[in-house]
Amino acid sequence: xxxxxxxKAYSSRxxxxxxxxxxxxxxxxxxxxxxxxxDTRDTFTMTSAEMHHINTADGHLNAANAAVLRIxxxxxxxxxxxxxxxxxxxxxxxxxxxxxxxDYELNxxxxxxxxxxxxxxRFQHAxxxxxxxxxxxxxxxxxxxxxxxxxTEGSPxxxxxxSDAYVEGxxxxxxxxxQIPDIYTQEIQPVQNSxxxxxxxxISIGTAAADRQAExxxxxxxxxxxxxxxxxxxxxxxxxxxxxxxxxxNEEIDRxxxxxxxxxxxxxxxxxxxxxxxxxxxxTGMKNRYALDQDLADRLANExxxxxxxxxxxxxxxxxxxxxxxxxxxxxxxxERLRTEFGQHAELYNITGNEFCAVFNREVxxxxxxxxxxxxxxxxxxxxxxxxxxxxxxxxxxxxxxVAGDCLNVNSLLVKMDNAMRNAKRQGGGQIHQVMNI
Amino acid sequence: xxxxxxKRMAACGVAAVTALLSLSGCGSSDGRKxxxxxxxxxxxxxxxxxxxxxxxxxxxxxxxxxxTYDASADITKTxxxxxxxxxxxxxxYDAICIAPDHAxxxxxxxxxxxxxxxxxxxxDADVTNFENRVSYIGTANTSAGSIAAREAAExxxxxxxxxxxxxxxxxxxxxxxxxxxxGFQRSLNGxxxxxxxxxxxxEAAQKAQKAQNGGGDExxxxxxxxxxxxxxxxxxxxxxxxxxxxxxxxxxxxxxxxxxxxxxxxxxxxxxxxxxxxxxxxxxxxxxxxxxxGGPxxxxxxQADFIAETVxxxxxxxxAQEMAAEIIKKHPEVKVLYATNENSTVGVCMAVKEANMEGxxxxxxxxxxxxxxxxxRAGVLTGTMLQSPYNMGYFGIFYSxxxxxxxDTIAKSDNPDRKPTIxxxxxxxxxxxxxxxxxxxxxxxLLNPYMYDTEAEKKDQ
Lengths: 438, 461
What we know:
Number of strands of chain B: 12
CATH class of the largest domain in chain B: Alpha Beta
Distance between the termini of chain A: 58 Å
Shape of chain B: globular
Oligomer: heterodimer
Helix content of chain B: 55-70%
CATH superfamily of the largest domain in chain B: Response regulator
Number of strands of chain A: 7
Number of domains of chain A: 2
Largest sheet of chain B: 6 strands, parallel
Strand order of the largest sheet of chain B: 2-1-3-4-5-11
Largest sheet of chain A: 5 strands, mixed
Distance between the termini of chain B: 67 Å
Number of helices of chain A: 9
Structural class of chain B: alpha/beta
Order of helices and strands of chain B: HEHEHEHEEHEHHHHHEHEHEHEHEEHH
């Protein structure tokens, strides 16, 4: 069992490791996904702000352009040069206010921080053209101012109406005014076109960059999910195989244990058998001298009991005369009869070949015991028919009324009884001698 | 329990594989198509073509097109550009942006390309008699000449009543040179003639007014003054000098040749121009180009009084210098010299310096090499017309890409026969640069289109 527990402790380690690894990867994954998401969100916020500013600027650029076109087309102009100039001034003011807004929006764009490199470059190009456009407007306003100075009372160039200078001034003004369509087509329109196209390009580059960024984020996200899935599969597969392996290993251990238990029980049984064999006389099936030794050893110190030893006189002559087989058969018949007739009153032992011992049960009284001793001796000394031959031998016996503490061990007890037996045999056999208590 | 787990695992696996598949599909589903555009340049004047190439490459990178730049090694051999067109046909390009070495010699080859399905755009210089060119993207040379003329007119008026201009042109055959001269001649003559006519008309009107009013009609109150002014002007327009004013308006039509066509014709042309202008910039460009093209056909060589002489130096500095020196000697009334390219500008400046006429004779030139910028800062060169080769490259790619993607959009739409609306010509502009405005950022950007390059791009260069 101890081996099995150790095995189980070992097999739980990969599970723990796999669990921790999965947890760690999950956390890393979540962090990664969060940052990807945050990055994407920031990009979109940035892009929408960028687009807002550039689109607003573009809108005002268009409005400024519309005002320029109204100048070119002479929309809202009165019939006189003065009214034309007034209308021109109004439109110029409108254009400047648009450019102020454009400037504001472009500054706001610039303040946004980290722009996409290409988009920012294009933005700067666009801004240069927006400024060029605005500069042109300033240039023409300056020219307009200098050309209209003669109309303003108090200015050094002021000319009295009707004077030559006045008429010449009107003439120059008229001429400038008539040049406006050409100035527009040749000088303003290319600059305005460049500014607007490059602004549009800056927007689309920024949007494309944001799209690329978003695409990259999505790709990272998919990749993460994919890797996560693969790791999950690998983890689950590993767990599955570990589990299966562990189950198999456990089954193997169980089988080994069962085999071991079987082997061990077999061993026990054979040991018991061996023990049986050791304490049994093989010939007669009765307990032997070792058994007697075992059975009595613990009782010597504090029990009293009756014990008797029987020996068939001159049994050697039977062996010598009829052979061992005959002797053996004779002894087994004797043992059979003793077991049948006295087995319930006493524990019977076959100490040596023709020597038997009876330890009487506790309920058998001393006198009864003597009676049974005589009975046993009589049974043994009665005639037996062995291999169709009737034989009869006299029996000597020694009895001992054992009192607790008489002997230190079984051996000394048997020595005492042997002495009594020797006395009986010396007096001619067929007698029962009592071991004397001193 | 175990089969449940197995099923879950299988589901996870399927999900992961799907995710990975859709991942690999992502790259190809980019909405923008990567058009292949072949840019064919020229080789003379390296900085100009480097800038043009840089503009084209910037647009390619920003807009996601595949752009190849190649240039002919020798401008006099049109066969080199023809070979490059063959390359474009072979490489199955979607569009060609070409700066043709010759206005007509490449037409057959370009027709081959057109028949192979390639859209043709011209940059910097245009082709003539080739109807399948989608758009010309470059300087409107007539306009550039006209801008120079307006500046020249100011200078002439300031210089005195008899002052005249002279032209040193770099080529008798190149269309760009011709247009720069024509634009200049026409506008200058137009403005100066209008000025003179207006003066005459003004004097006539004044005489008439004096005769009517008996001279001393002075009104003190301001509103009356204004009213009088208005009346006076109405009188001028309506009755007093119809010829003068109409003439002025007609010449203001400008793209149209002044003096060659009848006044009504000129008015008509202006009438066309203004509504188109109101209709939007594209319309304006559309209307502007034919007017410019129509000019040389109807015009011949309008030699008006205000241009003393037009000489052709064939592109070398020394010739330009010698011819300018001769003009200075021969025509003391010439106060403005107009040169039409880099070499002629530098040559004219050298002649002016040699004659010690700095500040007395103004020089208006073209383009901007280092010598010109030095002359500009030194005051020898009054002003120079700056083109934007970077924008030619950039917008060449920008518009051809837009045209191609519009074509694709239209092909997929309900009405696949429509034509994309791309202006037939895009003026990338010419800026009149003087020592006053040369340090402004927008002019600096024209001189150095790399000034806003990202750090990485600067490292590459």
